[in-house]
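Batch manifest line 315
LIGAND: S-adenosylmethionine
JOB: complex structure
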Amino acid sequence: MKLPHPIQYQGSKRNLASIILRYFPVKFSRLVEPFAGTAAISIACAARGKCNAYWINDLNNPLAELLGLIINRPAEIADCYETIWNQQHDDPIEHYYRVREDFNLTRDPRLFLYLLARCAKGSVRYNAEGLFNQSPDKRRHGTQPETMRENIFGVSVLLKGKSVISSLDYKDVLSNANEDDVVYMDPPYQGVCGDRDSRYFSGLSYEEFAAALSDLNIRQIRYAVSYDGRTGNKKFGNRLPESLSLTLIELEAGRSSQATLLGRDAITVESLYLSPRLAIEVKASPYFHRRRETEQLVLMESKGDYAAKVSKRIS
Ligand SMILES: C[S@@+](CC[C@H](N)C(=O)[O-])C[C@H]1O[C@@H](n2cnc3c(N)ncnc32)[C@H](O)[C@@H]1O
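JOB STATUS: finished
ARTIFACT:
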């Protein structure tokens, strides 16, 4: 059974969540996600009851606001999605472009949910001015409103009353993390276009990121980072520096987000790095997870008892 995921987002870690969570402590006080995206890891963590507090952050402000609406005002955002979705029938393509134009003027997160559900390959694209410029998917009309409502309420049941949502630069989040936290970081892929990546709001400097991790090591903060990887023979991104003394776990992910981004069928291997304190605590040593193992864990993923709570909240 799948966990609830209202937001389609290329690069989401939902398919790797089960295996990533194996490297988290059994229980801890707070999960901090500075690059939350769809908050896939917070959702998976909450479904397993690993902790009771979540700090969900993303620099992309409409995305962070959308997560806030999903978690705290599920009925409002579900109704709004249904209204916008139902308006598309006369001319779906024209409707999409109208919503996109409105979104680029207003940055309204409610419009963003529709665009994310409806855009080509679920993949966001921004131009150099930061305007959302992805085209519509011409074959599909986006998630049905009832399915969207179930997903929205599913997330709300898991995270409402436990989450703080913000839209800050990751460094401001890290400077406020503490020794009781576990920090999961999934920064934008190191693209071929330097610091700017059209898939996300901003790119990231390798040197600054490595310095931020070094500071976390000094402060003894537990963290895990998804960073580089490879598809077939092609590597994407540089490895994190040896000087950080991280433990490298490799995850064979099949046709994962990155494979799709590169438009290939080749097998993708993604890197997960564990901080020194985290690796000691969970007794991890370098490991390569084969694809079958990764896929089996996804199949075994259980919905937990939130499903019953969701139907109760929706009805
Ligand atoms: C690879 S995605 C994260 C995907 C996420 N793990 C998931 O499962 O959906 C990276 C995210 O980092 C955000 N981001 C980019 N630069 C950032 C920064 N400087 N500080 C915080 N977030 C940033 C992007 O908006 C994007 O949503």
